[in-house]
């Protein structure tokens, strides 16, 4: 082995072992209400340092985020990889692709969102969550949702009350990889843009988010689903090896699966 190669390998080992300042947290998501809601129950543990993050799934009902799998980002969540250590594989977790697939299905079923409204109705000092002070935000969200496919037709009115407790002290960009301020995309560009415009103004990142969603059909039958995500533990100023945020050598890159299950996972 040449002297140059020896130096390069020594440098790489030094970088991998270097400790980065950051934080560690654990979070739990529970979903109640609709049939099969328990499949959305998820627990994660995560390490974050600046624009680096690793989010590991300890439990999940989503086949794309099986226990032991984890997300990796090194650019604040702009690029995210899902790693499966059991299969020694990883794939790009492309939310735009997922939204595109959903959008194609929505178009095929003539899915439409009408009269969308997002209104901030509250901003005040909140509870202490995981030992950190928070700001409590409340939003009222509503829209009509229609679908027509072959002989099937459905029209519902959706109303949501979203409460979010954010910690202004938390500023690491990669926290947004999992602790997202806005709810999951519905695949409607104008509505998603409206929600982002309202909620990105929240200070810090969410330590607790509660969404109570009610769907009412044309006959007046209503179904309510409650989703609660909460950070249950957080450790600040934690020294984390840089190797934590790297995909292990020798892992195979594969294409992202095209179908998502009904469980939790990245929102």
Your description of this structure?
The chain is built from 3 helices and 12 strands. Strands 7-8-9-10-11-1-2-3-4-5-6-12 form a 12-stranded mixed β-sheet, covered by helices on one side. The longest helix has 15 residues, at 3-17. The chain is mainly beta.
Helical run tally: 3
How many strand units?
12
- Give the H and E element order: HEEEEEEHEEEHEEE
Shape: globular
Q: How are the strands ordered across the major sheet?
A: 7-8-9-10-11-1-2-3-4-5-6-12
Tell me the β content. over 45%
What value does the Rg take, in angstroms? Answer: 20 Å
Low-pLDDT runs: 1-17, 99-105, 259-267
**What fraction, in percent, of the residue positions are helical?**
10-25%
Q: What is the subunit organization of this protein?
A: single chain
Pairing-aware structural class of the strands and helices? mainly beta
Mean pLDDT: 84
Largest sheet: 12 strands, mixed
Give the termini distance in whole angstroms.
Answer: 47 Å
